[in-house]
TrEMBL record, chains A, B:
Short name of any one Pfam family annotated for the protein: Methyltrans_RNA
Family listed: Belongs to the RNA methyltransferase RsmE family.
NCBIfam families: RsmE family RNA methyltransferase
Domain Ribosomal RNA small subunit methyltransferase E PUA-like: 20-63
Predominant localisation class: cytoplasm
Alphabetically ordered keywords of this record: Cytoplasm, Methyltransferase, rRNA processing, S-adenosyl-L-methionine, Transferase
Enzyme type, top EC level: transferase
GO BP terms: rRNA base methylation
Localization (cell): Cytoplasm
This protein's name: Ribosomal RNA small subunit methyltransferase E
Catalytic activity: uridine(1498) in 16S rRNA + S-adenosyl-L-methionine = N(3)-methyluridine(1498) in 16S rRNA + S-adenosyl-L-homocysteine + H(+)
Source species of the chain: Brumimicrobium salinarum
Residues of the Ribosomal RNA small subunit methyltransferase E methyltransferase domain: 74-233
């Protein structure tokens, strides 16, 4: 069934009116009419299944048939990533990370960042579209572009995937998950992914002094957006398979 | 150091002449001159480090300074994937899978395939570029577009990631790797990823009758190219971390 996004915190109502853009999409593009069924999602775990009772193209009205609520995941995947020079690569990361179950994304500004501005509205649309397409019910939270210094002040622990060869890097996301699975459940353990030119040595130093753990992402050199997706998958895989198997 | 691709099986020579396109790139775009150093790779595990002895823009000549040979991986990742309707998505898959260590790719033609043609030369360029960028020394093998029937005849066992809900699907790539790690090392165990409209029921039936195992890729619904990248990451992660830890 077709899925539409409504930015309404509480979907526990009998009748819901779609916002203008989704109304147009339903009534004009897809030619949906009175009596047709659709699903509404709010990105907060609820699916409202309903039947169209009014099909005017600016305010499609839907009456509830069924409501399902899903519990949020018990773990929290937060990736703080430097926007890539090529904007498509950042957008691709957002789409893939949403499909793979990310919960929170913070774009970070580093001293080697080649892109210093992002378009939050456009990025938000990509998240909504990937959420609908992948049948997830929770919309990832997109934070504002934040300097790495401010980010480290706000998030004192986490993992950092830098590319310098260091002795402290012979651990991986999987090993850290095995050691500290509870930290990923109860608290926010962000994974930092640097820009194309990597983090500066000072940035790495500050993170490690703060209490971050450096991790390796494997043998080959990954692009920024690939590293972000790979990090996300590592956590997904852990909580969908290994963690379950253990408990 | 800058890396260039030469399609030469044996790099054990004193002097190598770059092909025209790589020569132009070195001499014209990057303005490299006599005495500058570069690395040549052939996609077969060898890095030839050399010094330019002739910088004419159509035939840059390089003299050997050093030669390093890397052994191939002991495992083999082969993904057979239906080309996506949007060609960019297939190209993204190829780039990411190369970064993540894929060894062999077969584009497959299914009954629900929306794209029935590919451009092998363009795809080959993407593989070469991703190999250079990610510092891998082995170029993945790109096979010809093959019908799924022919593919199944040629590869009697493997994994298939279809989206039908079936009882036989409560296993995953990780579980299959754990059960049959030796099969992934000695033999070719392809993972089949279907088109946007999924495999047809007949295709799934034929694969299962052939000896394929159906696998799930997790809770959320993944796009074709995300499924391909996720499958590739599963195998990479297994052989880089878990398999090592066990042996």
């Amino acid at each position: 069934m077709r899925r539409f996004f409504v930015d309404i915190g509480n979907l526990d109502q009998e009748i819901i009116t779609l916002p203008v853009d989704e109304s147009k999409h339903a009534a004009k593009v897809l030619r949906m009419r009175i009596g047709h069924q659709m699903e509404l999602v709010n990105g907060k775990g609820v699916v409202f299944t309903g039947e169209i009772t009014d099909d005017q193209p600016k305010a499609v009205e839907v009456r509830k048939v069924n409501l399902i609520e899903e519990k949020p995941d018990k773990h929290h995947i937060h990736i703080a990533i430097a926007p890539t020079k090529n904007n498509d690569r950042l957008e691709w990361f957002l789409e893939k990370a949403t499909e793979l179950g990310i919960h929170e994304i913070t774009p970070i500004l580093c001293s080697n960042s080649e892109r210093k501005k992002i378009k939050p509205e456009r990025l938000q649309k990509i998240l909504v579209s990937a959420m609908k397409q992948s049948k997830r019910l929770f919309l990832p939270k997109l934070n504002q572009l934040t300097s790495i210094d401010d980010f480290l002040d706000k998030h004192p622990i986490g993992l950092i995937a830098h590319c310098y060869e260091e002795e402290d890097k012979n651990t991986s996301i999987q090993l850290e998950l095995q050691k500290n699975a509870n930290r990923w459940q109860s608290k926010n353990t962000p994974i930092l992914i640097g820009p194309e030119g990597d983090f500066s040595l000072n940035e790495v130093k500050k993170a490690l002094e703060n209490g971050y753990q450096a991790v390796t992402l494997g043998k080959t050199r990954l692009r920024t957006e690939t590293a972000g997706v790979y990090a996300c998958m590592n956590v997904k895989l852990y909580f969908e398979e290994f963690f379950k198997a253990k408990h």
